[in-house]
Amino acid sequence: MIRFLSLALMAVVISGAVNAQHMNIGIKAGLNLYNIKNSNDVKYDLKPGINAGIFSHIHLSDQFAFQPEIVFSGQGAKYTTGGVETKLNLNYINVPLILQYMFDNGFRLQAGPQFGFLMSANSVTNDVKTDIKDNLKALDVTIGVGLGYIHVPSGFGLNARYNHGLTNINENSSSSKSFNRGFQLGVFYQFQHKD
Predict the structure, then answer these.
(1) Closest residue by Cα to residue 25 from 54, 65, 66, 60
(2) Whole-model pTM?
(3) How far apart are CA 171 and CA 168, in angstroms?
(4) Cα separation of 190 and 13, whole Å?
(5) What pLDDT tens digit does each residue of the chain (195 aa) get?
(6) How far apart are the first and last CA of the chain?
(7) Chain centroid offset of residue 192 CA
């Protein structure tokens, strides 16, 4: 799966690079604050996690860029019943395909679809881990919107993004629907950055 995703990203990068003014490769990492929204009004709490990955930043014009990414993302939620906490740990390999509008001062507005591939899923209650991957769909489609900033001389930057799940991640349940929702805060570095 990861090999397929890597090849897909390379194909996108190569095809985009043909018409691009220039492009850069970068790395990113940060904090996730994810939750699961349920249609049956069952409330979960935010669960922190991490995200880390690589991206290609392809300039399409002076103001617009296309940024495909491959990112590991620790997601899920947590809830408490009778004083006992349960954590739902959902680990995805996400492939965001982000279009950015770049301001002259280093700020960037960004939006685009994201395709998430479920790698593992478990629930943990009282240190007892239960595999729940078969209960969840393998593919999660979301829309991401956010804001970034890059310090042009150094290539270092900050990024904030909200991901709004469109896919009901429940594999078998017809009575309720569940959707991933999450904020990502992080830092990134673009190698050989050009403004």
Answers:
(1) 54
(2) 0.86
(3) 8
(4) 15
(5) 555 555 555 555 555 554 555 788 999 999 999 999 998 888 899 999 999 999 999 999 989 999 999 999 999 999 998 889 999 999 999 999 999 999 999 999 999 999 999 999 999 999 899 999 999 999 999 999 999 999 989 999 999 999 999 999 999 866 789 999 999 999 999 987 655
(6) 34
(7) 24
